[in-house]
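User: Okay, second chain of the day. Same drill as before: sequence in, structure tokens out.
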Amino acid sequence: MTGVHDRPSLPMFAVDAFPSRVRSERLVARLGSALGIAITVCFLTGLVSHLHQHPVTWLPLPADPVWGYRVTQGVHVALGLATIPLFAVKMWSVYPHLFAWPPSKSLVHGLERLSIGLLAAATGFELITGVFNLAHLYLWSFLFPVAHYAMAWVVVGSVIIHLAIKWPVIVTALRREPVASADAPVDETTVDAEVAAVEGAITRRGLLLAVAGGAAAVTVVTVGQTLRPFGWSGLLAPRSPADLPSGIPINRTASDAGVVSRAEASDYSLTVGGPRGRAFTLADLRALEQMEVELPIACVEGWSATGIWGGVRLRDLLDLCGVDEGATVRTVSLESDGLYASAEVQPAFARHSDTLLALRLGGETLTIDHGYPVRLIAPNRPGVLQTKWVSRVEVL
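Assistant: Same drill. Structure tokens below.
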């Protein structure tokens, strides 16, 4: 005899809630394959960003190509946004199974249900908090980069467990020809037409095209923040329009950082460590050999923009102070309490010919919000590590 508490009684949790003949194992497998690829690419590109911010000695990152981080992080954010409609439809396609009762019929079945629950919850967390981060809308007390990175491993682990359990089912579903009946293989177009005729609704093929179209639409209206020539299409890109004549967006102003008075002080000097360490006034820096480089600045939020930066090569200053070529240095900002008030600069970046302690942008003296009097600009590096308002260069 079945009791009222044998399964959830709310209609939305019923096994036949939101029924549709469009659902099938083949559809679920196709959507899952696309979602798996998207998750893998997002994880790998996110790992690149993490290694830039938390370098490890056994896997040094290169300074070339100079546009490398612009591409990897642009792909990370753009694909993450495009994954939202794909994830939503994927969840819809398996909805009847999410609340199947009982929750666990065996150890393997329980492990499968657990992996699906973790995968759905962790992926939803990554997508939702990622969007909020782009909008600088923080409705939580935890540190976003730490939580985002940790949860990425939960997503990947859940995917691996899910694949290990469901791989035979996935392969069979992808290989199976669509059928109109249990033993009559037919062309998928015919099946789609029959389903549409019965439901008067979208077909399986139409659903897949709609998902692809939705992902493409999300990409078009946000990718302008990374591909600047397409900035006109960035209707939903938070950093797409150039907010200053220089064309370089600003995430954190000097006022927010609390450095205005110190940055504009007449006695400002830049201290560089080393065997012959010394302090350089702005006049000293301007008297040294000046270089100009064209480099993009790319943010962890996905936006990027190219500027013409002018200033002194970091390696020239290090040589003047007798710093060993293999040394890692740290740039320290006038900002005292910011999350990125200092940044390590590994030898590959510190000695790169394009790495500057910049004094100018676009031929003009840096504005204070862009890092006046001195900021770091280096190739293939996250914008958060391009220290603004530099006060010291320490040798580690």
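Confidence is low (pLDDT under 50) at residues 1-5, 180-200.

User: Thanks, on to the next one.
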